[in-house]
Write a structure and sequence with these properties.
Largest sheet: 6 strands, mixed
Helix content: 10-25%
Strand order of the largest sheet: 1-3-2-6-5-8
Strand content: 35-45%
Radius of gyration: 17 Å
Oligomer: single chain
Number of helices: 4
Distance between the termini: 24 Å
Order of helices and strands: EHEEHEEEEEEHEEEEEH
Length: 195
C-alpha cells in the first residue's frame, strides 16, 4: 500500500509541516535514512513499504544481469538507489543504470547521469509506476524506462521521444528482450521472473 503525505495531511505524528508548506528537497534530505521507501514528488511524500522478497529477487537478478553486461568504465548499475529528478523530486527506482562518473554522488544520483530506470510492479504501486513515475522520468529526460510486470509476465520497454515515452517493445515469458542500448544484453523474462 502506497501512502501520500502532503503538508496539509496528518501523518502518524501530526502534520508534516504545521505552517502548511510543501516539503522541499532539502527537507527530504534532512529526513535521513528511513525504513520504508520514502520518495518526494512535488512537495508530497510518497511512502511505500519495502518490496516483497520475490520483487527484491527480481530486481537483484535484473541488476546483476545488466551489470554483468555493462562496460564498467562507462556504466554502473544499482538497485533501490536515490535518484533526483528535480529540486523537489526524489525517487527510488527498483533498478537504475547510470553513467560511471566521479561526479556521481554516493547518496543521490542526479537524473542527468541516468540512462535507464526500471520499476517492478506490485499491486500497490502499478498505477504510480505506469502513470506518475513514467511521466516524471520522461520529463527528467531519462532515455529508457523498463516496466516489469511479474503478474502479467511482461517486460515493457519505453524509449524517450521528445518529452514523453514511446513504447519500444513488449516482451512476454517465452520471448527474449534484446537490448542494444544502453547495455547490450538479452533479458529472458522466464529466467528473471518467479515461477
Amino acid at each position: 500500500m502506497t501512502t501520500v503525505f502532503t503538508a496539509d495531511k496528518p501523518s502518524a505524528n501530526g502534520m508534516i509541516f504545521a505552517d502548511g508548506r510543501p516539503m522541499t528537497g532539502e527537507d527530504y534530505l534532512a529526513l535521513g535514512v528511513t525504513s520504508p521507501r520514502v520518495e518526494l514528488l512535488d512537495g508530497s511524500l510518497l511512502v511505500t513499504p519495502n518490496p516483497t522478497r520475490a520483487l527484491q529477487k527480481i530486481a537483484r537478478h535484473l541488476a546483476n544481469t545488466l551489470e554483468a553486461n555493462a562496460d564498467p568504465a562507462l556504466l554502473e548499475v544499482g538497485d533501490a538507489v536515490n535518484v533526483q529528478l528535480g529540486p523537489d523530486r526524489m525517487v527510488i527506482p527498483d533498478v537504475v543504470v547510470f553513467a560511471a562518473d566521479d561526479e556521481v554522488d554516493d547518496l543521490i544520483i542526479d537524473s542527468t547521469f541516468v540512462v535507464l530506470v526500471c520499476e517492478i510492479h506490485s499491486p500497490s504501486n502499478a498505477t504510480t509506476d505506469k502513470v506518475l513515475k513514467k511521466h516524471y522520468y520522461a520529463v527528467a529526460g531519462i532515455p529508457w524506462y523498463l516496466m516489469v510486470d511479474p503478474e502479467a509476465g511482461t517486460f515493457t520497454l519505453y524509449q524517450l521521444a521528445g518529452s514523453a515515452y514511446k513504447e519500444h517493445s513488449v516482451t512476454k515469458v517465452g520471448e527474449i528482450l534484446r537490448l542494444t542500448e544502453p547495455v547490450t544484453v538479452d533479458l529472458d523474462p522466464a529466467t528473471l521472473l518467479p515461477d
